[in-house]
Amino acid sequence: MFMRIRAAVGAVVVVIALGLVALAGLVSHQAPVSNPTASGNGAVVFVGALSGLAGETLVFLKSRYPGPSLEVTEIAGLPNAATKVDYSSIVVFNSDWLVGKVGDVALTNFFKTILPTEVKVVALGGHTSLLFDAIKQARDGIFADGRNPAFNDPPLAGYKLKHVTGPDGTPLYGDSILIGRPGSAPEAADSIVNWG
Amino acid sequence: MKARAPRVLVAALLLSALAFPMTMPVATALHIPGHDLVWVRDYTFAPYLANSPYGKLNILVTILKLLHDTTSSYDWYFYEFQVQSVPGKVAYSSNW
Questions:
Q1: What global pTM score does this model have?
Q2: Which residues in chain B are closer than 8 Å to A150, comparing Cβ atoms?
Q3: Distances from the Cα of A145 to the Cα of A49, A140, A183, angstroms
Q4: Which of A100, A115, A180, B90 could be a cystine partner for A161, CB 3.0 to 4.6 Å?
């Protein structure tokens, strides 16, 4: 009788112990919770006038990216803005600001500096296709002539250069592209935060 | 009577063995033995359609390139489409 009880207790202990090991394994395989500011600065860089859909969306983005906020209205302010950006930041263009500036050396250099950080770059309202035209100057080959992903100027367009590791360990880069037709500024902010 | 203890232990080990596979990482999707797929681009259409109070539609397109495809004539890409419909109840707290 005593042996039977001892065996049963032993079995229960084994099941509990192995169950705990299995549970620990499950927990260790959970995907980390997405938090753009987990270890980065979570800065928000806004380029252009604080008006229209871009200006309205900025209000909601600031609550999701609690890092420092920088507003740029002149192209001369871009080099300084580039120093504030890391992978956890967000760069927001009012598309109207991009009109007439595609191909400008300072703008192209701005993209060449910030894109390798894998920062999200978005344009809102108006001619959002200009964002891809401008980025193409810094990253040729992103799309063929006449194949702008935002060719019909959706209210929201975004680009993020993403780094992956090839099967032989070589670093590779690809493009993550966001196209959105949000009905409101909060919806635009949700799309940007949830993307990528 | 003594033979029961090992049987109980075997049962316990079998139960534990059933639990262990759950801890294994999920196999990589679209893996083809002898070949490698590498991510090259994704398109996120979010929202692709938004119509309050009824709901919205999101589309995610992931493009993977096949490496070592044994042909110099073509490049092979895999397009994976994910479509997400969000009811108005979730998207807009409406009764749709």
A1: 0.75
A2: none
A3: 29, 10, 30
A4: A115
